[in-house]
Amino acid sequence: MEPAQKDRTPFSDIDALSAQMSEIVLDAIVAMGRHPEIQRVRRVAFDSLRPATGQRLLDAGSGTGEVARLLAARVGASGEVVAVDHSTSLTAAALTRHDGSNVRYMLGDVRALDLPDNAVDGVWCERVLQHVEGADQAIAEMIRVTRPGGRLCLVDTDWDSLGFDGMPAGLGDAVLAHVRSHFIPRQQDMGRTLRRRLVAAGLSRVSPTPVTCLFTTPASAAVVLPMVNPRVPAESWATPPGLRDEWLASIDAAGASGTFLAVLTIWVVAGTVPG
Ligand SMILES: C[S@@+](CC[C@H](N)C(=O)[O-])C[C@H]1O[C@@H](n2cnc3c(N)ncnc32)[C@H](O)[C@@H]1O
């Protein structure tokens, strides 16, 4: 039987994780935000959302609140950012990182936002929907709380685009077959479905931008790709232990010889709420 979403992605229910996994996930979110390729994705998203002084914005699935604080710097003292996440531990981590900017942190589910209709001028939702059962319900909620003419900016991964080079032929395929069915979110195509979802929801001026992230060292890739990260414990892999060890050893060898390569496309899709 297929594992449930919560067993395939630690990000769908972080509060239910062991202390060890919870620490790994928190560190991962912070490290991803610092990664140059994720920062490149975010620059595209900022250009798509175009946050402006005085606006009220929602960061849906805000994690440690890093983007919420970047958005707050853009909207300034006359604006506000509402940062919503359903994880108590991540919301607590966001509060400890707060910099005094105009961010209001709220616990909540992106599928049932505790906000009135037309409450915000725009929404940022980054690498969240792949972890949510009911992504279209979440999108409908984001549209409901956005005023007519406001913008939604969704950022998500297309795990089907993941590719490797430098490791022995065949080994990567065997590992990917395992991790695709057990280890990465069931909605592994979320990124490339975003345009269709926003068009179907009636948004106009829908602009899809694929950003292909490039990783040329194992250390760089491990920040974003869990199957390259040796900190992810063996029990999370659902692969025979020998296969995981062989894979990680081959990654080390490719890194040492300078031939390691990984690519992953993350989509930035924005659209305007009609009315
Ligand atoms: C990969 S993290 C991304 C966090 C943040 N957007 C960023 O880019 O750093 C996914 C986030 O989505 C949150 N999340 C997952 N499902 C959610 C839901 N149904 N409602 C609210 N937050 C959710 C998780 O708690 C986690 O903070």
From TrEMBL:
One of its GO terms (molecular function) is S-adenosylmethionine-dependent methyltransferase activity. Keywords: Methyltransferase, Transferase. Residues 58-153 form the Methyltransferase type domain. GO terms for biological process: methylation. It comes from the Bacteria. CDD domains: AdoMet_MTases (cd02440). The keyword Transmembrane does not apply. This is Methyltransferase. It comes from Actinoplanes utahensis.
